[in-house]
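sorry for the late reply, my laptop died twice this morning and i had to redo everyting from scratch. anyway the thing you sent over, i finally got around to it. pasting the sequence first so we're on the same page, its 127 residues, then the predicted structure underneath. double check i copied it right bc i was rushing
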Amino acid sequence: QVQMVESGGGLVQAGGSLRLSCAASERTFSSRSMAWFRQAPGNEREFVAAINWSGGSTYYADSAKGRFTISRDNAKITVYLQMNSLKPEDTAVYYCAAGLKLYENTVSVTIRQYPFWGQGTQVTVSS
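ok and here's the structure:
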C-alpha cells in the first residue's frame, strides 16, 4: 500500500509562511506528477498547485499564484509547498496527491487524475 504523509501544517498569523512537505513511501512516486489540494469546512476539495515528475512544469490556482511555490526532491521522494503571505482564507486541510501515470510532462488540476492521496495536514491562518 502506497503511503504519502504530509507534515508542516499549523497555526500561523496572516502574512506568515508555512512549508508543507509530503513524503511518499514508494520510489515510483518520483516519476509521477504531484499536486496539492485543500479543503475548507463546508467546501469542496480544490486544486492548489501541481508539478510534473521532473519538476520542469508547474501550475497554480489563481489563489496561489505569486504566494505559493511547489517543488520536489525526487531523491527524497518528497514534494513541498512553500506558502507565503498567508491569508485567513487559506485555512483548510491540505492534501498531497500523486498522479496515476508515470513520466507525464503535463499536469492536471482534476481530482480524478490523482488516485493516490495523503491524510492531510491542517493549516490555520488567524487574522
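The chain has a mean pLDDT of 96.
thats about all i looked at so far, will dig more tmrw
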